[in-house]
Specification:
Strand content: over 45%
Structural class: mainly beta
Strand order of the largest sheet: 31-32-33-34-35-36
CATH architecture of one domain: 7 Propeller
Largest sheet: 6 strands, antiparallel
CATH class of one domain: Mainly Beta
Shape: globular
């Protein structure tokens, strides 16, 4: 049995509680004046500030489309471009949002206005859009050079430069630099670059800079380039306040500054996850980027202040030791709660970067970190390092009871490798070598309160113990070609496991399996193609029917019927674990992400009455080529549209903005194979799902 997958909206009921205002990567930032600013980023992130950038607030956009750039021709209008050809116009209030383009073009990467009237928007597959009427109309500009366009720079109203890159099969990325001398009406090739540009900035018609692996400068209009000798490398952004004063930022968030037109650069070291820079004036600078990181300097870059709240270190483990007390552990940080997650207190963690941890009870915890194995016996308040010889690759740890603990891994060399199981019978203080029958390589261990446990083989195979590891036997009812990774039992009989299923051709799939007899027999309930995708990272079930699965790509699956059907919602950053207690659930992951969800409020999917309000009709159905979808909205707004097959493979994913009332959207399904497809429409007000049958032409 394979579960049916539909799409929902994560932001409606999942609340971000760390870091604030966002955990989404930011791509661009502008200021309309000294007070009002706008930042945009991944998964539809829009932030605004009204006090010069000290405090930022999230603007609800109700879309997961990645937003890549923002620009303004004046102090009122705001233009934003993003993936799937999305180009919108709004004002600083963001009450009315007009969609100028969506779906017609590929990803739009950069938008720039030269003055009140003239602007450009560039994107993938040699796309240039130009406006001469303040953004009311955008006209494609054609030119004969292939490539995905990444950045453009106009040192004056007539002369501009454009950089792009393209990939040649069985070769490397190639890059080109184009120039216009007639305000973008025509573009000519300057040269084929020997490096991939991340950003460009020209200070006059001949002098320019490119942020690439090195920071490069030209004084002859891009015909030749020289690299500056700097301690940093792989620069992501470069900008100049005037011809003499400029800044550049590397992937590590380190800044370099020039005061002589780029002849020399001085390094200003910063620790952060920023990868873009915005210079407002001689004193005020912003850096921003990964994980929603925003820093501001008011003294020319000497002192920096983070404008958001919360720690952005990655989080890897969440565990509740009873119905009130819980812990979240990550990279040098620990959160604890004593009131079922109503409040969390953040503390530094001496163990450093924690990869895995296991709790024996409310006081004893074993943590595997880069800097060794650590143990606490007082509820994570103090830690001491355990003297244990770990294998070269460590996979995980678990407590079978309050005294018995295990660590699994593999030891290997140039010509050998073998499985390692370490066992402690004194709560993790001392360790001896142990093994399972046949010495299989064990990826994960899971134990239930009565000592029943499961050992999950790295390449397949499942082993069960009824007595906290004193004896093991291999389970015969394991699905073939399936390797489990994570497991959760809401009851002693009913359990769920996530893992990887490999078909006879060697193609991998993410799989969710279920047992109703305490783990002796397992059946697949959900299968998803995982080509070039990581494995599921966590599983947690509230009861026998309602549960959640996280993915390190940043999605959350939910079922309310024991795995028969699933909804799939999206975060932006990787989610590494999930857990819950007392009516709430938390998903944690990259950049300090902590999402909270009330169990009874669902996963952002409105009730069935709301679901009926979006899709009014689909015609024809069955269809051969095109389908017209009639939909109705109570108010203007964005609608996310996805089309999937019955295995959950996504055939279409885009966001369009519709006017209030009835609208018609046409879907071209001529490229689809005959079969049943699921159409999903979701907005901030409702959700609809319908089946469409594609039939072959006569």
């Amino acid at each position: 049995m394979f579960g049916l997958l539909t799409a929902g909206h994560v932001s409606a009921q999942w609340n971000l509680i760390n870091p604030l205002p966002t955990n989404n990567n930011l791509k661009d930032m502008i200021f309309l004046n000294t007070s009002k600013g706008v930042a945009v980023g991944m998964s539809g992130t829009i932030l605004t500030t009204s006090n010069g950038g000290d405090i930022w607030k999230t603007v609800p956009f109700h879309s997961f489309t990645n937003l890549n750039s923002v620009a303004s021709p004046d102090s009122d209008a705001v233009f934003i471009c993003g993936d799937n050809g999305l180009l919108i116009k709004t004002d600083f209030s963001f009450i009315l949002i007009d969609t100028l383009e969506s779906g017609q073009y590929g990803n739009l990467n950069k938008i720039l206005f030269l003055n009140h009237s003239v602007g450009f928007c560039i994107g993938n597959d040699r796309l240039i859009l130009k406006t001469t009427d303040a953004g009311r109309h955008w006209i494609p500009v054609t030119f004969g050079y292939k490539g995905d366009l990444v950045d453009l720079s106009f040192p004056d109203d007539s002369v501009g430069y454009l950089a792009g890159s393209f990939y040649t099969p069985f070769s490397e990325y190639s890059a080109t630099l184009l120039i216009t001398r007639d305000q973008g009406t025509s573009w000519n090739l300057v040269d084929s670059l020997k490096f991939t540009p991340n950003a460009i900035c020209f200070t006059d018609s001949l002098t320019g800079f490119i942020a690439s692996y090195d920071l490069l400068k030209t004084t002859d209009g891009g015909k030749s380039w020289s690299a500056d000798t700097l301690p940093d490398y792989y620069f992501l952004d470069v900008c100049f306040q005037d011809k003499q004063n400029g800044w550049a930022i590397s992937y590590e968030g380190n800044l370099v500054k020039t005061m002589d037109g780029g002849n020399s650069w001085n390094r200003i070291t910063r620790n952060g996850t920023s990868n873009h820079i915005l210079v407002l004036d001689q004193d005020t600078l912003f850096t921003y980027g990964y994980g929603g990181d925003i820093w501001v300097s008011r003294d020319g870059g000497m002192q920096w202040t983070e404008t958001g709240q919360g720690n952005r270190n990655p989080l890897s483990v969440i565990s509740f030791v009873d119905d009130k007390r819980g812990f979240i552990l990550g990279d040098s940080v620990l959160y604890r709660t004593t009131d079922a997650g109503v409040n969390w207190q953040m503390e530094d963690h001496t163990a450093g970067n924690i990869d895995d941890a296991a709790f024996a009870n409310k006081d004893r915890c074993l943590a595997l970190a880069w800097r060794g194995t650590w143990l606490t016996t007082d509820g994570c308040r103090t830690w001491h390092q355990v003297n244990v010889s770990l294998p070269r690759a460590v996979y995980g740890c678990a407590f079978a009871d309050e005294s018995t603990a295990y660590i699994t891994g593999v030891e290997y060399g140039h010509f050998f490798s073998y499985a390692v199981v370490l066992k402690s019978i004194d709560g993790g203080e001392t360790w001896t070598t142990d093994s399972l029958p046949g010495k299989p390589l064990i990826r994960e261990l899971h134990f239930m309160p009565d000592g029943t446990g499961f050992a999950m083989g790295f390449s397949g195979g499942l082993y069960k113990t009824p007595d906290a590891g004193k004896s093991w036997e291999q389970i015969a009812g394991m699905p073939v070609r399936t390797a489990f990774r994570k497991m959760n039992f809401p009851t002693m009989e009913t359990g769920y496991a996530t893992g990887v299923f490999t078909d006879t051709s060697g193609r991998p799939y993410n799989v969710i399996c279920k047992t109703i007899d305490a783990g002796n027999q397992w059946a697949q309930v959900f299968l998803e193609d995982t080509s070039f995708r990581p494995e599921y990272s966590g599983v947690y079930f509230v009861d026998e029917s309602k549960g959640y699965v996280t993915g390190s790509e940043g999605f959350i699956l939910k079922t309310t019927d024991g795995g028969t059907s699933w909804t799939k919602d999206f975060s932006t950053n990787g989610l590494y674990a999930i857990g819950g207690t007392g009516g709430r659930i938390w998903a944690i992951g990259a950049y300090g992400t902590i999402l909270s969800n009330q169990i009874d409020s669902g996963l952002g999917i409105p009730d069935s009455a709301s679901r009926l309000n979006l899709i009014k009709a689909i015609y024809p159905n069955p269809f051969q080529r095109q389908v017209e979808v009639n939909l109705s909205l109570d108010q203007q707004g964005p609608v996310r549209i996805t089309v999937t097959d019955l295995t959950g493979r996504r055939m279409l994913d885009l966001t369009l903005i519709f006017s209030a009332g009835e609208s018609t959207w046409t879907f071209d399904g001529s490229h689809l194979a005959p079969g049943v497809y699921i159409l999903n429409l979701s907005s901030g007000l409702g959700f609809s799902s319908a089946r469409m049958l594609k039939i072959s032409r006569e």
